[in-house]
Amino acid sequence: MKKTGDETERTERLLSGEGSISTLSILSTLSVLSVSGDEASQISKALESTAGAGGRWEKALFRFARTLRGLNAGRDCSPVVFKALVAAWHRLAKPRDGDGEPVDAETVYGEFLTCWPRIKYPESDPLRDVLASTPCPPEAAHYESDQMRQLAAMCAGLQHHAGDGVFYLSCRSAAMTIGHVDQVTVWRYFRVLVADGLLKQMTPGTATRAARWRWLGK
Question: pTM for this one?
């Protein structure tokens, strides 16, 4: 990946600690690198979620590295961009050692360089994995909405993994996995699938537990 002057300037700002670190500044830097909007968003979310995870900082950094390993943008990054992203993680996480003392940026980057080649499997999202590996069922191919067809595929894939049992799926999780659709719309899609005889709700969801379903399609 060829570096531009704009890329160099932005990544150097992250490395130097100049200015405030924010989701917007990270996304702005990634956009200069021609990282797709979806992957840039995933990198930004991974930074925020792992940096604020608590517990041992080494484990949180490893989770961030695993997420990068699973993205094209992460695999193709130049060393200086890797260093800038880890610097951003360090500034967000503010890691401390066992004695409560701050951990310096060089130690964090050194740990990242140590764990990176050891990562055999990227951080994965089970629902995304199911959706990516399950084609739209023929009985749902007539739906006009692409998101509707994806929901049907997700339900069919989850049922495959559940065997004769039921599967759990909430509107929130489905909406986040599919993207470009909100929870209310997903609930409407669920109602359509039920009305069309392709899906049956076995147990309604609660505030703490997703609804249980059974896919009735072929």
Answer: 0.50
